[in-house]
Design a protein that fits this description.
The chain has about 160 residues and is α/β, with parallel strands linked by helices. It starts with a strand and ends with a helix. It is built from six helices and five strands; from the N terminus they run βαβαβαβαβαα. About 30% of the residues are buried. It has a single domain, classed as HUPs (Rossmann fold, 3-Layer(aba) Sandwich). The radius of gyration is 15 Å and the shape is globular. The chain binds adenosine-5'-diphosphate (ADP). Adenosine-5'-diphosphate (ADP) binds next to helix 1 and strand 4.
């Protein structure tokens, strides 16, 4: 049986920090589904379709990666996809409390599903989508943090071209 994991997030937009987690997850699972949250309470800069499009572009070279948009309860989605684990990236202690609570709640909702926390690569410890958006707004260069396609889309979105 294929071992499938789901990596959920807003990916507004995808960064090298996210891609590092995806690549490392591929060492552990046969398939990784990147699930773009469309019903997040967080206000996003890009629509779910735009976030999906960027993820499709930048993961096209990676084998065994699927990109999808999802809304609703994560545990139901996982079950639907016959996945066995939820992957989460951890940057700092500040990520931990909320993630810990969510992992326990998801375990309560479906005891069969494991949440796997992957420590960020130290190169990306300080990297977040919101930081990247701020830098682009201030006309800074983000090519160390996101693929060039994403950088282009950010400039277009923020009318900086
Ligand atoms: P954010 O939390 O910045 O709004 P997302 O919701 O898109 O970002 O994040 C999706 C997942 O990726 C989360 O598990 C988050 O902790 C993880 N993640 C985000 N940035 C990094 C990074 N630089 N290194 C490791 N994991 C990360």
């Amino acid at each position: 049986m294929k071992r499938i994991a789901v990596y959920p997030g807003s990916f507004d937009p995808v960064t090298y920090g996210h891609l590092d987690i995806v690549k490392r997850s591929l060492e552990l699972f046969d398939q990784v589904i990147i699930a773009v949250l469309s019903n997040t309470m967080k206000k996003s800069l890009f629509t779910a379709d735009e976030r999906y499009d960027m993820l499709m572009k930048v993961t096209s070279v990676l084998p065994n990666v699927q990109v999808d948009i999802f809304s609703g309860l994560l545990v139901d989605y996982i079950k639907n996809k016959s996945a066995i684990a939820i992957i989460k990236g951890l940057r700092a202690i500040s990520d931990f409390e909320h993630e810990f609570q969510m992992a326990l709640m998801n375990k309560k909702l479906n005891p069969k599903i494991e949440t796997l926390f992957m420590m960020t690569n130290e190169k990306y410890l300080y990297l977040s989508s919101s930081m990247v958006k701020e830098i682009v707004e201030l006309k800074g260069n983000v090519l160390d943090f996101v693929p060039s396609y994403v950088s282009k889309k950010l400039k277009e979105k923020l009318n900086l071209n």
